[in-house]
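Entry:
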Amino acid sequence: PSPSPSPPRHQHQAPPAMDLTQLIVQFQRMNAPTFSGTENPTAVLEWMKELDKIFVVLPLPDRQRVSLAAFQMKEDASDWWIELWARRPEAELHALTWEQMKVMVRNKFLPQSFWDRMEHEFYHLQQGGSSVDEYVRTFTRMCLFAGDAVNTDAKKARKFLKGLNQRIRELVGSHGPMSYADTVSRAQEVESCLIPVVPIPSYPLASQPPQAIQYAQPISTVPPGSSS
């Protein structure tokens, strides 16, 4: 007798693609931000950064990413986008990638003069009177404008180290080259070992520019948890 046919194997099928309306609902449930084009210049970078985070969790083809991003444009930004594509063939819009769209939005809402100013500020960024944690937050935000200056981990670590206050920089730098994450961690540990010297300001206080924090001799030059 001929062998009985084997039972059909279960085949995994991809879930049916959602239509744009379903996508918009799911997209907005993830707190997708809007962008009006009237906010401060850095708002466009924050908007794109938040959308990038959503697109990691919600992987979509470029055409749908562009459509969803355009849907989140309001006011001036929406008017600009609609007018822009009213003069271009529809096929060109359908071929547009999310990365290309981001470049177009940046070129429109972030003028070159703004980039030049922010790059200049980043180049001269110093810890000054901030704590290391505050300096880290400012440094991270300003890295958006740094371009090739921090396009590797080693460059990023060196730039961060250069901006630290002198005493912290000397103690952190004495350990040799480290990754950016290790440089930040070491700076935080060193700061916790130092005794800040708080000068008595001369009158009037409001007229005094912020000064870099000065430190007395450290309680210990060996950060907590170090065996050396």
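DSSP finds eleven helices and two strands in the chain.
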